[in-house]
Amino acid sequence: MIENQAYNHANREEARQLADAMVDRRMNAQMLQRLDELITSDLGCLQAYVERIDFHGELVDQSMERHSASRAALAMDQIAQSATRQERRENWKLIAGTVACLSLIAGVFSWLVMTDRLLAASVGTIAALTSDLQSHSQLELGQVVRKGRLFNLSSGMLTLQLPEVMVDVIGPAKIRIHGQRKMELLSGTIHAYVRPGGEGFAVHTKDSVIVDLGTEFAVTCRPNAETEVSVRHGRVKANLVNWSGTPSKELGITAGRAATFSQRRQSAVEVNYHPQTFEKIESARGTIKLIDGMLRTAAQPPASVASLKLPTHNHMLVIPEQQRVVLAEDLQVIGISGPVQIPAGTAVSSYLIHYDPDILLNKAPRGAVTFDGHILAVITTAEQLFSTDIRFGLPGLEYGNSNVRELELDEDEVRISDDRKTASFYFGLTGTEPIDHARVLVTSGAP
Amino acid sequence: MVPYGISCRQSDLGVENPSRETEFLRDLSSAYREAYASAFAIVGNRADADDVMQEVCIVLWQKYEEFEQGTDFRKWACSIAFYVARAYARRQRRRSSGLSDLALARIEQIRTGGAELFDLRREVLQECVGKLSARDQQFLQDCYGSSLTQAAFARSQKKSVETIYTRLKRIRHKLITCVNRTLGKEGESD
User: Fold this and answer.
1) Contact B12 A80 (CB under 8 A)
2) Is residue B13 predicted with pLDDT exceeding 70?
3) Is residue B185's pLDDT more than 70?
4) Which structural domain, as residue segments, surrounds residue A242?
5) Which of A8, A128, A170, B101 is packed most tightly, with the most Cβ within 10 A?
6) Does the beta-carbon distance from A362 to B62 stay under 8 Å?
7) B145 CA to chain A: closest CA distance, Å?
8) Which helix (H) or strand (E) holds B39?
9) Given a cut of 50, is residue A12 above it in pLDDT?
């Protein structure tokens, strides 16, 4: 007992000495590591460290000759100088910008008319973006996509909503949109899901023209290599093209089959079907139809969503979890509107909304997600989140065991639309661990 | 009360409502010390705490429109000081080394939870500093008021680092003993 007390006393004293070293700027990496160990494992050491560092902070504060009020005023001066500099920069930018704009307007206008871009028709919108997306141009959710638009992605995934067609572009990739029913894949991979009414949607590559006949398919086009077409559901008609782009051979590809096309070798060959491409799409988007606001999907399932493990900066993440889980028995969960009974036999897909900001924000983000299926429940309490982690969570994903993940409904908001297809979220920022989780259970719609 | 020492022009700030600026200055003055202490506890030295506080003041001003009058400005300012200081500490950590996020979060928890106790300790410490000799008070002010490292400070004083450190350690010991005695907390050493 006495030995234990002496040990604790020695540790606290060590924490205080390390605080002195911190202030005196005598710390090295080893000392920092030791300090970290002490203050994260022993509350007494933590208290001793904070008391000592506060002691030094007060001495620094007293040593500054200016009173708090005048220091605050000084700070205001710095803010003012910063604002003045900013204003000057803005003025110069305005003058330079006006001159540049006037000289460019005529040229740009002529170019737009000549290239038919001025009147380019709207063919769709951007429906989803992953958090790791990098593109050569600014992309935003809801942005209108016009005929002739080129997308050049370095990484991440972009989802385009065209009439009755949803196209996922997986970076690195380069595509051009030629119309509501026609796109060109210059390099990379696209995935298309075509609803009834969207048949006839065509993807052109240097090697082939793939025409959809009501289906879900993926196309990969590699520079200096052949084009690969995989069909998950339904059927496509794929044409090998020759050097002039004229079809030279036609191949019908049905569900669970794949083929490669080489314009250079003039070959169209059936190859083994690899479902991995579709699984990647499913893990990133599940059956999400549309996202809006400051929500993003995750390109790959994360390893952990515990506090501080997956910072989300200025957006929320929607992570598809278990998909199409068929309930063997009735399930009762507590949603935001109270208890919900989900009958046995229901196929349920689950989505985790994750928000863990690590930087200071002006305001908390808002966002909404629309699913193909109907929303059964939105789970927000720690107890319900933990109890559904096992059934609906992703295997191997660390969810953490802290209660702070639950929503504080006095500041966080969740709303479900009248048609129960859209859930909107607003997560607050207060607390030292502002992590928030919500789980959305949805009836499984179309794959 | 409008604090003294206001030297900036309201027009410089680009504010349409000058009274808003006065309100901000009043709030900032009342919360400055606590916000500084929050930042200092995270970054652990004066030079970095000064940098952090510049950023904190700018952020507070930029977000002041969002601050709800009647709520606790001090708490809000300390919370922002913590976030800015944590971001600063993370940048430092990427460059060399530093405390983990968990450690930083714990420090803030202890500070937030024991805010009143820390206020009391600071008041007592002020009294204890007042009891030091004028020479020791001046030395303390020179040491803590300088943003130099100890080695650079020693050079500027034409003394060895050892001499400076030994004297500083002795004064700190006096102060800690005085604070603990006043608060009835014996046994803590320096």
Assistant:
1) yes
2) no
3) no
4) 122-279
5) A128
6) yes
7) 5
8) helix B18-43
9) yes
- Bond into A302 cis (ω within 30): no
d(Cα B60, Cα B76) in Å, to the nearest integer? 9
Query: Is there a domain that residue A111 lies in?
Result: no
The closest of A273, A316, A301, A313 to A398, measured between CA atoms, is A301
From chain A, the residues in CB contact with B9 under 8 A are 80
Q: Which residues of A touch B129 (CB under 8 A)?
A: 59, 62
**A286-317 pLDDT per residue, tens:** 878 878 788 888 777 889 998 888 888 778 88
Least trusted range by pLDDT, from A6-20, A128-142, B128-142: A128-142
Q: Is A404 on the interface with B (CB under 8 A)?
A: no
Peptide bond into A275 cis (omega under 30): no
Q: Do A70 and B102 touch (CB under 8 A)?
A: no
Residue entry with tokens 């993807």: A203
Give percent of chain B with pLDDT exceeding 90.
25
Residues A294 and A411 reside in one and the same domain: yes
Q: Specify whether the CB–CB gap between A391 and A349 falls below 8 A.
A: no
- What total of structural domains would you count in chain A? 3
pLDDT of B4: 28
**Could you give the maximum distance between any two Cα atoms of chain A, in Å?**
91
8 Å CB contact of B143 and A13: no
What whole-number distance in Å separates Cα of residue A37 and Cα of residue A14?
11
Q: What is the ipTM, given to two decimal places?
A: 0.84
pLDDT of residue A284: 76
Give the model's pLDDT for residue B7: 28
What does the mean pLDDT of chain A come to? 82
Please tell me the pTM assigned to this model: 0.47
Calculate mean pLDDT across residues A317-328: 91
Contact yes or no for B145 and A65 at CB 8 A = yes
User: Chain B residues with CB inside 8 Å of A51's CB?
Assistant: 118, 121
Domains and CATH numbers, chain B: 1-113 (1.10.1740), 115-190 (1.10.10.10)
Residues of A in contact with B103 (CB under 8 A): 35-36, 39-40
Residue A333 in any domain: the answer is yes
Backbone φ, ψ for residue B66 (5° rounding):
-85, -10
Q: Which of A220, A249, A279 is the last residue in one of the domains? A: A279
Which of A260, A279, A298 lies at the terminal end of a domain, its last residue? A279
Same domain, A298 and A433: yes
